[in-house]
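The instructor's notes for this session suggest beginning with a concrete chain rather than abstract definitions. Hand out the sequence below and ask the class to guess, before any prediction is shown, which regions might be ordered.
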Amino acid sequence: MKSKIYRIAHKIIPQKYKNNITLLLYRIRGIKIKRQIKYAENYDLKFSDIENICGFDHVLPDKYLIFDKEYSLNDLPLFCEKNKFSSGDIKDFREFSRLYFLLSLALCNRTKLIKEIFSARLKTDIFLWENAMETAIRAVNLSVTFQLIKNKLSAKEQKTWMYRLFSCGIYIRNNLEKMPGNSNNHYLFDLLGLIWLGVNFKNNEIADEWTDFAVKEFEKEINLQFYQDGFSYEGSTNYLFEEIEIFLLAEIALMSSDRNFSFSFKEKFKKIRKTAFAFTFSDGSHANIGDTDSGKILWLDWNEPKNNLTPLFTLLKACYPDDDIPGFKPDENSGLFRLFSFGLKKTAYIENDRSLFFPDINAFIRKKQNNSLIFWGGAVKNEPLFAEHKHSDINQILLELDGSQIFTDSGSFRYNPVFSVRRSFVEEEAHNTVKFAESQRDFKDAFHKKNRKIKFEYLEKSNDKIKTKVCFKNVIWTREIINDNFNNISIIDEVDQPGNIYFILHPDIKIERVSDNVLIFKSKNNNYKFKSEEKILILYHEISYEYGKKIGTRKLICNLNKKNKCFIARV
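After discussion, reveal the predicted structure:
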């Protein structure tokens, strides 16, 4: 006979997932939870309070209300078929485990159903304890839900919820996803969970340590994981918007504590937001560059595509009114904004009880705007959708993508959601200047599709001595290297392969292609006579998580391949 949870899973899980139910059930048993419960017992949160809990007897209702709008069960992400993501982004079960839906049910005043689901989770642990990031997202949703329904819970039930939340904090603190060198977005999620829970349980010695630790780590990570222009080293726009939500919620949370981020942190966060806005279209969507993950921390707008940024940007615009979001019109009816701005006021049963933390976005907004809530009025008609940034070295950029052409005025560079100079810097050594203008990492998906090509014209002056014009077509990576040591160089060729970039600095030789770590060179005009053994200076760039640190030049001795009439070098 099948178990109850197995029968329920067959009821509510779409047909295309049913073959994976056994694997799913194996993953959601939650092996790690027993160890974490044992940890939690040391902090006066006894498991005896919750040992007699009923099983999972109900599924989610067929109909429920969110902000006076009716949605069916199919609108939940677990059952939603309408949002077609790439194969790497189908994570329905994981997202179900993040408990987004509990927050929606709380705002619908479905406390009884929440209590039944929550109680069943303590018995069967039907949601994943996969890693610290997942636990942090779940903890934020649990804590907000708890604050919304707290006054409808008994004293024993309140203690049970607090026990579970505290257990989440212990789990995160003991399983931080810190990596050698640069960490990634997982670690930022971990830190947000610690801040959120630390403020929840403020004045507790252990929880205060979580908050202090997370604030210090955030100050470090924002400089380790983000370049000076505000783009993440992971090279993903999806991660960039996730990280903006992380920083925003962390800053809001600290409003309810005596801690705060430094001025330098806030200035860097401002740069990050400015860069992110450049990748955004007026309808709230954004260029999908890099990893296609589109996770969220708080998700209330089920009827919107998951990659729609309107709810997040509406909240950002309220908190940071000076931010310029070209072509964007805030939506005051978005669930995320209503939750923080006045969703609490509509939930009368929690108005007089703030014994546990819940962020007051109105106080945050008033502090930012001198007691006035001002929204940006939206886009001016025919307003360009892309932010402009001065870049004196660039004369003109023509971007041709799916038939659309975008030009910039002379002397300015306009970010485009699909093509962006991610990082530019100058290194000076004596009289040598090497300048790198780097395009966005992971452009393969953008430019390998049919009918997509890029033309990049770049007129550069270096000490008024060298004028270099570089034109590339149908390439993924675009780089410009200028060095006074090579005054005779007018054209610089490049070629890419996964993980590496190669440049040859020679006026008469071009790189034909790379195959199995073999560089193949040819004469540009068929006039150059290859020697049987020749030294060619190649700039070799290795793409890694420590982006930009492994750049160097070396001389390679190449052997003539007479059969193919070309020059090759093994690297």
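Then share the key points. Residues 155-174 form the longest helix (20 residues). The chain has 16 helices and 17 strands.
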